[in-house]
Design brief:
The protein is α/β, with parallel strands linked by helices. Helices cover 39% and strands 10% of the residues. It contains nine helices and five strands. This is Carboxylic ester hydrolase.
Length: 236
């Protein structure tokens, strides 16, 4: 069986297999080496993710994933006194939930690489123009400051647990015009934002020795098949 990489997260993960999405790009990148498995749950926070993690990720004891990305926090960071309050999870609980999810994965599959991804930055103007539900308050239901607190918490979990982390909250803000270039509605990713995250994930996997150069190709490449004796390429 081909090895696999599992993407576990909220709507930014669920949307990742859309046209130009970061998950779709990963699937294309590793098209002959790895199956990229989508486990994205729109609207979920880390509390709900912890509840479903074992079922969502499955057992796969005989074929553990090479890597799992864990990408929650954007919904946890919803403000507790605004329209998305029911998604809010306090930072201390968010930390606990992330640790529990990662610990469960590593306990089941010790050799699996677990990659944490911080919530993205928030373009508050974009959220006001694209309000959640029927909110007419004129206030964003989440702020960049709040998202930053959860990003820092995510990084602290990664450091404490010895896991790689992709800090997109900080890295995206280093790009001029990130608010509209990388985010389509103040939160979710544009095509450029998806490309940005894809490249970050590929680089992180590479640092963990998971790349096209290190992973075996599934079945002989066409270039390896001898036109004179084609079946020779398929000998075990």
């Amino acid at each position: 069986m081909r090895p696999k990489i599992v993407l576990f997260g909220d709507s930014i993960t669920e949307e990742s297999f859309s046209d130009g999405g970061w998950g779709a790009n990963l699937a294309h990148q590793f098209s002959r080496t790895v199956d990229v498995v989508l486990r994205g749950y729109s609207g979920y926070n880390s509390r709900w993710a912890l509840r479903i993690a074992d079922e969502a990720l499955g057992t796969a004891d005989n074929n553990p994933p090479l890597a799992v990305t864990v990408f929650f926090g954007a919904n946890d960071a919803s403000l507790s006194d605004r329209s998305s309050a029911f998604q809010h999870v306090p930072v201390p609980e968010y930390v606990h939930n992330l640790k529990a999810i990662c610990s469960s994965i590593k306990k089941r599959w010790p050799k699996t690489v677990v990659i944490l991804i911080t919530p993205p930055p928030i373009d508050e103007d974009g959220r006001v123009k694209n309000p959640y539900g029927e909110d007419t308050s004129g206030l964003p239901e989440r702020t960049n400051e709040s998202a930053g607190a959860y990003a820092k918490a995510c990084i602290s979990v990664a450091k404490e647990s010895g896991l790689p982390v992709i800090d997109i909250w900080s890295k995206m803000q280093q790009i001029s015009g990130w608010e509209k270039n990388l985010l389509r509605d103040g939160l979710h990713l544009t095509a450029s934002g998806n490309r940005f995250l894809f490249e970050e994930v590929v680089e992180t996997l590479r640092k963990e020795s998971l790349s096209l150069e290190t992973l075996p190709t599934d079945q002989p490449l066409f270039s390896e098949i001898d036109p004179v004796d084609p079946l020779n390429a398929f000998k075990n």
